[in-house]
Specification:
274 residues, binds S-adenosylmethionine, globular, Rossmann fold
């Protein structure tokens, strides 16, 4: 099911819906599909470690192109998986298993009934929101006793530690651009366990997956797509020059080039049973 009405939105959410990463931007669909190819294996590893049951009710928040929601729906054939997003155009057009429904919602204002869900998952969403701790509390409230919250967000290693200054500068400039235009905070990922504990969740787990550039064709395609989308705004903002971007990108053509782009931090915790 898809809701046609405009969702209630927090004014800050407009920065995402209309900004650099808007679903209407050329290439954004391809970028999100590549993000799925890069990140879904790690996400599935985390989700598959939970004691999932076929009748679970799940919410996939900020579902993007829907890969994780589809996987959850296949794992929960007698349950329900609600894939939410500020902009559901990519979810509306995908082939969906029966338990999967689509709902256009802003997570900062959305409401699921308290205590109604076995699992809430969000990847690469809260890092873009102005008050992620509040969103964690809101999502924790949706969980049944014993229900699980899984949040995944990226964080970056210090640019000055990279042996490739131009490449590191390009990554850092993209980070800065997102911070300026979307309020993206890549330090948030380290704070997820604290936010989960403050929301009353227990049994905390934390793992991290490195995104390595130069060794995997899909990862490199993902980063090339990110850099291509960001280039006009990077030049306009003065954060990078054309020649420095070219020097940074040329590394991706060199067979020996290998560097860490980000770490995707995955945290899980659950609402106490009692
Ligand atoms: C970087 S993409 C990640 C997509 C997907 N979670 C993944 O990892 O493949 C962020 C997604 O969150 C959605 N989003 C951003 N702000 C949101 C909000 N306030 N409420 C719901 N979804 C939001 C975006 O529309 C986008 O689809």
């Amino acid at each position: 099911m898809s809701t046609a009405h405009r969702p209630r939105t927090d004014p800050a959410s407009g920065r995402y819906a209309e900004g650099l990463l808007s679903h209407g931007r050329a290439g954004e669909y391809e970028r999100l599909l590549l993000l799925e190819q890069v990140c879904d294996p790690g996400t599935i590893r985390v989700l598959a470690s939970l004691p999932m049951a076929p009748d679970w009710h799940c919410a996939e928040v900020g579902a993007g192109t829907g890969g994780v929601a589809r996987w959850l729906a296949e794992r929960c054939p007698r349950g329900q998986v609600t894939a939410t997003d500020l902009d559901t155009r990519f979810l509306d057009s995908m082939a969906r298993p029966a338990p999967m429904r689509v709902s256009r919602q802003d997570v900062t204002t959305a409401d699921f009934p308290p205590g109604s869900l076995d699992l809430v998952h969000a990847r690469a969403v809260l890092t873009h929101l102005p008050a992620p701790e509040q969103v964690v509390r809101r999502m924790a409230n949706w969980l049944k006793p014993g229900g699980w919250l899984v949040i995944e967000d990226p964080t970056y290693l210090p640019a000055e530690h990279s042996p490739y200054p131009d490449f590191a500068a390009l990554l850092a400039a993209c980070e800065e651009l997102l911070a300026r235009t979307h309020g993206t905070d890549n330090s948030w990922a380290r704070r997820i366990p604290v936010a989960m504990a403050a929301a009353g969740l227990t049994d905390l787990g934390m793992t991290a997956d490195l995104s390595v550039c130069g060794r995997d064709e899909t990862e490199d395609r993902y980063w090339r797509q990110c850099f291509a989308q960001a280039t006009p705004a990077l030049l306009e903002s003065g954060l990078m020059t054309e020649s420095r971007i070219q020097r940074a990108l040329s590394h991706l053509d060199q067979p020996e080039f290998t560097d860490v782009a980000w770490m995707m931090i995955s945290c899980s915790a659950r609402r106490p049973l009692g």
